[in-house]
Amino acid sequence: MQYTDDLIRALPKTDLHCHLDGSLRLETLIDLARQRKVQLPSETPEGLRELVFKEVYRDLPDYLHGFAYTCAVLTDEQALERVAFELGQDCLAEGVRYLEVRFAPQLHVRQGFSVADVLAAVTRGLERVRREHEATESVKSGMEPPFRFGLICCAMRMFTGGFGPWYRDLLSVLSHWPVKKVYGVASLSLVREVIDARDRLGLPVVGFDLAGAESGHPASDHIDAYRLALRNFLRRTVHAGEAYGPESIFQGITLLHADRIGHGTSLFSAEQVQSPVEDPQRYVRRLSEYIADRRVLIEVCVTSNLQTMPHLRRVEDHPLGRMIQERISVSLCTDNRLVSRTTISEEVRKVVDAFDLSPAELHRLTLHGFKRSFFPGSYKEKRTYVRQVIDYYDRVAREHGIPQVDRGDQH
């Protein structure tokens, strides 16, 4: 089935795995750096694309290098609000109707500027996008679904153990950071603060995440934080299976009670199983079956994975194709719009071409993001919103000559 770029852009989409500090506009990064006297390797977009934000990276540390500069400028409410607003605008312009933006609040705090202040600034930026979109005639008339968003707060795996070499490099660039304070902040204290921001301040914190280097920083270090999140009905996702094997995914689900998994790229990689299991192939088969049966959504970031995993040479090599065949819940995400130089529309384009998706498969892939989202409202409100999205999706598909999807084929 051939899908036009106009159709892909027009379809309602989600981005459930989008890092705020990896998704700035280059022009904004340059402007903020100039205002805040942060030295960049270049002061032109072209120069930064050549030196920092590349098409291809050598390895994961090379990919992460750009965060030293983006985090260095996101240290006050004006910068955070601006970047959040622009991210919302960019997402809305390409058809994203639901966005979950994630970030590690501790990377942006300073004296007199707390975790709650960070969350409030990001909320203000995205709220402006929501209000502006809802003021349009197409939304007011009910022809188009409104823009909705939620915040996911990331704890960093290494904050309880020690800093890897790439993180020490990042800290050396951000020389103004209170290193001892940042090192001492653990995931448990973070989850307490974000629950308070949600419950006392009414901020749209919808989820808790664990990011950072998997190897050497197991999920078991953060069980208490995730138990507290669970007790307070804060939804949970975990970066897992990106830089470690299937056991990392297993730990995220069983130890941290993850509702979703970020990346999950090693799900089928029996050769990466390090536990003394009798049959690694059976282990990954049962793990994938469990994930499929429990509807644990995988937040797939194809371009990002291709840039950081040398064994993935083409989109066709990505395990997403097998995930779709095995009817695992998956949703396409950007990971970092700037660092990976991508958009959701570009991710969809690559995937439909590589795996020759049928209209039913594209329909499922798109709607999984809405259905498995950590929607910042009641269950009834979420159902109403998803119904709006489905109706809009069907109308756009008809207008572009896409065959009607058999509802009996949906799951």
Write a structural description.
With 411 residues, the chain is an alpha/beta fold. It has a single domain (5-409), classed as Metal-dependent hydrolases (TIM Barrel). 47% of the residues lie in helices and 12% in strands. It has helices spanning 5-10, 26-35, 45-51, 60-64, 67-73, 77-93, 115-134, 137-140, 165-173, 179-184, 187-199, 223-231, 246-254, 280-293, 302-308, 320-325, 344-355, 359-371, 379-399, and strands at 13-19, 96-103, 148-156, 205-211, 235-240, 260-263, 297-300, 330-332. The protein has an eight-stranded parallel β-sheet with strand order 1-2-3-4-5-6-7-8. Strand 4 (205-211), helix 12 (223-231) and strand 5 form a beta-alpha-beta unit. Helix 6 packs parallel to helix 7. The protein is globular, with a radius of gyration of 20 Å. It starts with a helix and ends in a 12-residue tail after the last helix. 48% of the residues are buried. Mean pLDDT is 90; it is low at 160-185.
Question: What order do the helices and strands come in, and which of them pair?
Answer:
Layout lengths: L4 H6 L2 E7 L6 H10 L9 H7 L8 H5 L2 H7 L3 H17 L2 E8 L11 H20 L2 H4 L7 E9 L8 H9 L5 H6 L2 H13 L5 E7 L11 H9 L3 E6 L5 H9 L5 E4 L16 H14 L3 E4 L1 H7 L11 H6 L4 E3 L11 H12 L3 H13 L7 H21 L12
Parallel strand pairs: 1-2, 2-3, 3-4, 4-5, 5-6, 6-7, 7-8
Helix pairs in contact: 5-9, 6-7, 11-12, 18-19
